[in-house]
Write a structure and sequence with these properties.
Strand order of the largest sheet: 7-11-12-1-13-14
Number of helices: 10
Oligomer: single chain
Shape: globular
Number of strands: 14
Radius of gyration: 23 Å
Mean pLDDT: 82
Structural class: alpha/beta
Length: 404
């Protein structure tokens, strides 16, 4: 379990920057130790909340190395502060592509208040949940989440929970910036102020860029009709209304470069992989900081220099730059982030470091560095690499001498 409450307190309804919540969590571990599995679990939970009503995709997946787990449900749960400033707990379990149980609570005080509880087809409602509860229940299928159905019906009482998954949780796989590029381009085209902010971030990242330019490209009537037919097909498939306005617009993106007093435009698809990744990372970071969202990256350092990763972490740790206490969760192998002798010292403190450890049965566990009670001035990177915290490969004899 990943718990981002600080050891200094455990208030359920924590206000931003009251010292109770950690804005950063870096997850370390050996290859195949469970880092990406943890990432996939967060992504799967959000996907099911957002999509199960209109397109049933319940993703319960038993543990592959234990035959008994095939007869048990897969369970997800999350506790978070939503956009309305209230702390909620929400979870569900799935078995054979059906919802076994589902529940939601809120923390108006230190004790939880029930909103609803579902056991199979039976749903119990708390007095705190007002709205068309029974009306939503009539539209509910056994392979869809109640929260997803409630959102489709416009149930205001559960909107903060659904909106946290929809608007305040952003999950990106390793190298996942590529599918995001088109969304970034449209956002830059529609929001000049955001384009200026991201261009400034790219410029300060010392990537050789002095700015970003977008040139509108005219589409033929045939291309426009093809785009509209594709949008209509997607709308029919998902049941979600897709606005056609703006679909007929296409843009070419250029990075501007100042070289020997001359300005040159380079098509963005010719920029380095790291530059394109940084633009998408900057887009996500900008969104998180403006809305107080939680951004989750698998292998955040896959295409970024270690110093850029340090700077991204620093931004989330700085209350002046992150007044809404957006959170950054990431998996990484970049040990320099916890190296006391690197740069200006360790960027991650002991409360911000986690390890994934796999036991002999192949079961992964997430362990907080703080659980090892390291000393205040302890060199965390050195201790980690020496195996004191686990989370490293146990044997590195990659080549069998007999085979050489």
């Amino acid at each position: 379990m990943l718990d981002l409450r600080s050891n200094d307190g455990a208030a359920a309804n924590a206000a931003p920057w009251d010292g109770n919540l950690q804005p950063v969590a870096g997850i370390y571990g050996a290859n195949a130790s469970g880092k990406t599995t943890f990432f996939n679990a967060m992504s799967a939970m959000a996907q099911q909340v957002l999509e199960s009503y209109r397109s049933p995709r319940l993703l319960g997946e038993p543990f592959a190395f234990d035959s008994a787990s095939a007869s048990h449900p897969t369970k997800w749960s999350a506790t978070f502060i939503a956009g309305d400033g209230v702390c909620y707990a929400y979870g569900f379990s799935v078995f054979n592509r059906l919802v076994v149980e589902e529940w939601a609570e809120q923390y108006a005080t230190a004790r939880p208040t029930l909103l609803f509880e579902r056991k199979g087809s039976v749903i119990k409602y708390g007095t705190a949940l007002k709205g068309a509860n029974r009306a939503v229940e009539k539209t509910l299928r056994p392979n869809a989440l109640y929260l997803s159905a409630a959102a489709a019906a416009g149930h205001a009482g559960l909107a903060p929970i659904f909106n946290w998954f929809d608007q305040h949780l952003q999950v990106f796989e390793a190298g996942g910036y590529r599918p995001l590029v088109s969304k970034v381009i449209m956002a830059l085209a529609s929001d000049p102020s955001r384009r200026a902010r991201l261009a400034g971030m790219m410029r300060r990242a010392d990537l050789g860029l002095s700015g970003l330019e977008l040139h509108k490209r005219d589409l033929s009537d045939l291309q426009k009709s093809q785009i509209q037919r594709a949008a209509e097909a997607m709308q029919a498939l998902t049941g979600e209304e897709i606005p056609f306005e703006g679909l007929n617009e296409s843009f070419d993106v250029f990075g501007t470069h100042q070289v020997s007093g001359q300005e040159y435009l380079l098509p963005f698809n010719l920029e380095s992989d790291g530059t394109r990744a940084m633009l998408c990372h900057a887009f996500v970071i900008d969104e998180a900081l403006r809305t107080g969202s939680t951004a989750v990256f698998d292998e955040i350092d896959a295409s970024l220099h270690p110093l850029l990763v340090r700077e991204l972490v620093r931004v989330f740790q700085d209350p002046r730059l992150n007044p809404l206490q957006a959170q950054l969760i990431f998996t990484t192998h970049d040990v320099s982030l916890m190296e006391a002798g690197y740069g200006n010292g360790a960027q991650l403190g002991r409360g911000e470091i986690w390890f994934t450890e796999k036991d002999s049965a192949g079961c992964s566990t997430l362990v907080a560095c703080a659980d090892y009670v390291p000393r205040t001035r302890e060199n965390l990177a050195r201790r980690y690499m020496s195996g004191r915290y686990g989370g490293i490969p146990e044997q590195l004899d990659l080549v069998d001498p007999v085979l050489v």
